[in-house]
């Protein structure tokens, strides 16, 4: 039985941009960034703080927010978005069907609370069309820290393509079919390489992809929701291609058999299935085991870590029993 453990996750997000296929992705940068309270200067409030959606780099710890403490140029009427707890963050990124009903977003213009990204988009288009204020995206803020301030047009475009339409611009690298609305397969070795079901069955591929590369099956989210697939063994090992792992089983398998292969850059099968805007579409810069620990909160069973260090990120983990 494992004791509970705490992980300090270092996340910094780069500004999203359109690529040639019209997708709108957010990349996770491997840069550690401390967040301190702007009032009491409490250190490292990453998992328990509020972020102003108007002021640049203005953060409040829970205590200062409850006591309504603030400093200039921030104003008390500025909308403040709470950041997800560590437990809820891992719940979101590990779910094949993200729990949108639990998001609870703050409108960056009027401050009212809205439950889903689609409703936030509709609200802003109707109530705040042409608003001249530059704001930060509450969805990105809730999961991370997006430093870029966006004009109204940029914010609407970002909200629509980066969050509300995520996954709708997936295209097949062989037949160029887009969007792929049915089942598809993502290569865990190639950089951003996906095949529709027909091309995968016909074993069609281009020259950059090798037929022996492990391919992660990805179903439409409606099927995952109907089958309650989050508890199933659906992940494929990117190193040997063995299939039908749970997230925990994948971590245990890679630690047991593929520690020496960790230098190979691969795509995370959990992120490939999730297809959230916060997943890393491209090849991991860190090892897969590091990624599973830092980004998904998954620790291999039987591990006896004391202090585990990744670059400038220090993770304190008690031993398991």
TrEMBL record:
<keyword id="KW-0863">Zinc-finger</keyword>
<dbReference type="InterPro" id="IPR043145">
    <property type="entry name" value="Znf_ZZ_sf"/>
</dbReference>
<keyword id="KW-0862">Zinc</keyword>
<dbReference type="GO" id="GO:0008270">
    <property type="term" value="F:zinc ion binding"/>
</dbReference>
<dbReference type="GO" id="GO:0005764">
    <property type="term" value="C:lysosome"/>
</dbReference>
<keyword id="KW-0479">Metal-binding</keyword>
<keyword id="KW-0458">Lysosome</keyword>
<feature type="domain" description="ZZ-type">
    <location>
        <begin position="32"/>
        <end position="88"/>
    </location>
</feature>
<keyword id="KW-0967">Endosome</keyword>
<protein>
    <recommendedName>
        <fullName>E3 ubiquitin-protein ligase KCMF1</fullName>
    </recommendedName>
</protein>
<comment type="similarity">
    <text>Belongs to the KCMF1 family.</text>
</comment>
<dbReference type="GO" id="GO:0005770">
    <property type="term" value="C:late endosome"/>
</dbReference>
<dbReference type="Pfam" id="PF05605">
    <property type="entry name" value="zf-Di19"/>
</dbReference>
<feature type="domain" description="ZZ-type">
    <location>
        <begin position="167"/>
        <end position="223"/>
    </location>
</feature>
<dbReference type="InterPro" id="IPR000433">
    <property type="entry name" value="Znf_ZZ"/>
</dbReference>
<feature type="domain" description="C2H2-type">
    <location>
        <begin position="235"/>
        <end position="263"/>
    </location>
</feature>
<dbReference type="InterPro" id="IPR008598">
    <property type="entry name" value="Di19_Zn-bd"/>
</dbReference>
<dbReference type="InterPro" id="IPR013087">
    <property type="entry name" value="Znf_C2H2_type"/>
</dbReference>
<dbReference type="Pfam" id="PF00569">
    <property type="entry name" value="ZZ"/>
</dbReference>
